[in-house]
Design brief:
The complex is a heterodimer of chains A (about 375) and B (about 100). Chain A is of the alpha+beta class and about 375 residues long. Helix content of chain A is about 45%, strand content about 25%. The longest helix of chain A has about 35 residues. The radius of gyration of chain A is 26 Å and the shape is globular. Chain B is built from four helices and five strands.
């Protein structure tokens, strides 16, 4: 006799994949609402072919892009995705006139088809989120308005945020769209993009189309996520995740170009939430105070020496690295207050995935660590 | 013209450590030791010192793994080993009272 609890046990222990996903529903042709009460919009980007640019041109383009990004203030959260996928399809139209051209193109396509596993597509997508305040229940509103009117207040607030997001995004596209080739993704394409992020396999992502505007989190997920002793798997794909632990000492335009040469499927995601200058100044001042005092209490012998000498610091060897950190923070403060730069909360994640073996992913993960290490940064592997 | 090079704010991303452990952990260890050592007699003072050293050693070990180890552990505790795409968890929008 089959024991039903044995079969149900694993199902009961499993979590729901939709609980991990934030998108909730589309509220118009482009804008979606998340469970965290944020509104988002996805933008497809053609990008720039940097290989043919001089340093001057690259620098000038970067300055334009930096200026354009300033439009998104601390209400916005900006995500940039780079997706590299193998099994690239080769576009071919057979209606070429002269026989010689047709044959040349046909031979070239046959050659490319023969090495299809080594061909990759690169795709750039920006996702802009506007963070709205939580839906507060105001006692004054509740006393004076009916439930229907309260809902109308929330709907007005939602509409106001949507209008702000669309206006800022349109302005961004007007500023930089001619350089980067930006277009807003319609909801059907945005849904496909979200499915690709959640399932990783392009075939599985393309298998389902947008039918309902709501319950996106449930319809996006089609692959189980399994965490085993060997690591993480999404459907049949082996996954390795690396996060930035320490930022590079310096950055310059196209600093991460070496990552594009990796022979692997990957998704690179950066997240930036700008912070106001007041918050940044306050954080820097706090860190400076900490480093000032930590030069005297960097190790146990220093603390014991200070205690024995009733707080006198003459016999304590100060930690000079803490002073260097203070100078570094001084420089950051000057760049914010005098040079018009701004700070933000930044994260950088590389998701490597493949279907062959985990060993290949490990080799690629080492390459990623090496590339970031070349600029004195450090990444940490999340799936070890 | 060479490319414009921007320095990264590395000092701002450093974990804030005191005697090699996170400053919040250091504060907690110190506070607990002071509470224990506040009683009269040799034994409470010795216990406070031993407690501080023990907490420092544990904190040092955890900080070496990750300076945000408690946040990571809290996240890991909530995670499951399998997520089923067919299982469904309801999502409720909850109204919360505006803080005065």
């Amino acid at each position: 006799m089959v024991k039903l609890p044995k079969f149900l046990k694993q199902h009961r222990a499993a979590g729901a994949a939709n609980a991990l996903l934030a998108p909730h529903r589309f509220i118009d042709e482009h804008v979606f609402l998340t469970k965290g009460n944020q509104l988002g919009i996805a933008l497809a980007v053609q990008g720039i072919d940097c290989e043919c640019l001089t340093d001057d041109a690259l620098d000038s383009y970067t300055k334009r892009a930096v200026q354009a990004w300033r439009i998104f203030d601390d209400r916005f959260r900006v995500y940039q995705y780079v997706l590299k996928q193998d099994r690239a399809s080769i576009e071919y139209t057979g209606d070429y006139g002269p026989e010689m051209i047709r044959k040349t193109i046909s031979d070239r396509n046959a050659h490319l088809q023969s090495k299809a596993p080594g061909l990759y597509t690169l795709r750039l997508v920006y996702v802009i989120l506007i963070e709205r305040s939580p839906m507060y229940e105001s006692s004054r509103v509740k006393r004076t308005l009916s439930t229907k009117k309260v809902l109308r207040v929330f709907a007005d607030s939602l509409e106001h945020s949507r209008a702000t997001l669309v206006a800022q995004t349109d302005s961004f596209i007007r500023n930089i769209g001619d350089l980067l080739g930006i277009r807003k993704l319609p909801k059907a394409e945005a849904f496909q993009f979200l499915r690709l992020l959640a399932n990783l396999d392009p075939d599985i992502a393309a298998a389902d189309r947008l039918i309902h505007d709501s319950h996106l989190d449930f319809y996006i997920a089609s692959s189980p996520i399994v965490c085993t002793r060997d690591g993480l798997r999404v459907g049949e794909a082996y996954v390795d995740v690396l996060s930035l632990k320490e930022p590079p000492r310096t950055t310059f335009p196209n600093v991460l170009r070496d990552l594009l040469t990796l022979e692997s499927n990957f998704i690179i995601c950066t997240e930036l939430k700008r912070v106001s200058n007041e918050t940044a100044n306050s954080a820097i001042r706090g860190a400076q105070k900490h480093f000032y005092w930590s030069q005297w209490v960097s190790d146990i012998p220093s603390v014991i020496s200070m205690v024995m000498n009733r707080g006198k610091r003459e016999n304590v060897i100060a930690d000079k690295s803490a002073l260097n950190d203070m100078e570094d923070l001084d420089g950051t403060l000057a760049r914010i207050n005098n040079d018009g730069e701004y700070l933000g909360e930044f994260s950088f994640t590389v998701v490597l995935y493949g279907w062959k073996s985990r060993r290949e992913l490990q080799a690629t993960a080492t390459d990623v660590a090496k590339i970031i290490g070349n600029y004195e940064g450090a990444v940490v592997r999340e799936c070890v | 013209m060479p490319l414009a090079i921007k320095p990264g704010a590395r000092a701002l991303n450093k974990p804030l450590l005191i005697i090699g452990i996170d400053r919040k952990l250091a504060g907690l260890a110190f506070l607990l030791s002071v509470i224990v050592g506040a009683n009269d007699g040799f034994l409470p003072k010795f216990s406070a010192l031993a407690l501080f050293v023990a907490l420092w050693a544990i904190g040092r070990r955890l900080t070496r793994i990750d300076s945000n180890i408690f946040q990571v552990m809290n996240q890991v505790r909530q995670r499951k080993t399998l997520y089923d795409p067919l299982k469904r968890e309801q999502f409720w929008a909850v109204l919360t009272r505006r803080p005065e």
